[in-house]
Amino acid sequence: MAEGNGRPDLAAMTGRLGRALAAAEVPVLRAHGLSMWAYVVLLALDEGPVRSQSALAEAIHADKTRIIGVLDDLQDRGLIERVPDPGDRRVRLLSITAEGRRLRDAAQAAVQEREERLLSRLTEEERATFLRVLQDLHALPWEDLAGP
Amino acid sequence: MAEGNGRPDLAAMTGRLGRALAAAEVPVLRAHGLSMWAYVVLLALDEGPVRSQSALAEAIHADKTRIIGVLDDLQDRGLIERVPDPGDRRVRLLSITAEGRRLRDAAQAAVQEREERLLSRLTEEERATFLRVLQDLHALPWEDLAGP
DNA sequence: TATTGTTATACTCTATAACTATA
DNA sequence: TATAGTTATAGAGTATAACAATA
């Protein structure tokens, strides 16, 4: 006895869509030599330098021990800078380099170009509303989305 | 130097939204005595009986070894039926019970009631378009979303 | 003593391989 | 022999605990 009435849970729909888009993103990023975490780090640093690795980890909702290898690799490749703070030599000042910004821009352009394939299924009105709502919800703090 | 132009990746926005909604769902489901996988199984069986555990696992994109414990528990609690197929006693015929359907309905009502809190931020027009687009995209096969 | 970053360890989830029973 | 289901094992990803350097 099929059911039919009602809608699927919002969580099920956005979850599946998010996983599918992430799966689509992986090969694009790998073509640019980036892991998902490396890409997330470059995106975060592109909005400005960060004063400590802990702060960066918190900003991207990662564990601080989890991004160390990522930072090592990005630094070795000259995509980020990681220098001890002269005022407090325990903390590392993190910033993206010009080369890192170039790579980030190229990767993101490729990612979004691919996403256009999906958005092209929508009408102009659907596309505009969908993206606006998504951006509004994305701007909300986590607690407003996930609750107390 | 902040950037500002362009939009966040679709994958980042839907991914975060999906994870947040899933996180919001967990305590609601637990209040009904259900894990996420148990809930997914009940939802899948509600659309009709399934002829084998392998088929069910494939339908919900899970490994067949992963759902065994879930099925054991659901069966012990009388929420599903699992009987050997008389025609081929290797396969198990799976179906949801009336009690299982009651629990599923109660759980889903609670889940969606919570999701309404988020949707109430939208205008009627935004809400209608957003849900319609989401359902359309959700109905697409995985390959259309994630690509080749 | 407290904190940043790092390394080492343990845990959770998932997938793979080996096994039983039916065919 | 091949397949459905189960159990046992191993792997990936992640978090926790212990450590070194600096404050």
Write the layout of secondary structure elements.
The structure is a homodimer of 148-residue chains.
Chain A: H1 10-31, H2 36-46, H3 53-59, H4 68-76, E1 80-84, E2 92-96, H5 98-119, H6 124-139, H7 142-146
Antiparallel strand pairs in A: 1-2
Helix pairs in contact in A: 1-5, 2-5
The first copy, chain A, binds a DNA duplex (23 and 23 nucleotides) through residues 52-54, 62-66, 68, 88-92.
Helical element count of chain A? Answer: 7
**Can you tell me the CATH class of the domain at 23-115 in chain A?**
Mainly Alpha
Instruction: From the alpha carbons, calculate the radius of gyration of chain A and give it in angstroms.
Output: 19 Å
Main beta-sheet strand count, sense and barrel state of chain A: 2 strands, antiparallel
**Could you tell me the mean pLDDT of chain A?**
95
Please estimate the helix content of chain A: 55-70%
Strand composition percent of chain A: 5-15%
CATH homology superfamily name of the domain at 23-115 in chain A? Winged helix-like DNA-binding domain superfamily/Winged helix DNA-binding domain
H/E series of chain A, N to C? HHHHEEHHH
Total E-strand runs of chain A? 2
The biggest chain-chain interface is: A-B, 54 and 54 residues
- In spatial order, strands of the major sheet of chain A run 1-2
Residue runs with pLDDT of under 50 for 5 or more positions of chain A: none
The CATH architecture of the domain at 23-115 in chain A can be given as Orthogonal Bundle
The CATH topology label of the domain at 23-115 in chain A is Arc Repressor Mutant, subunit A
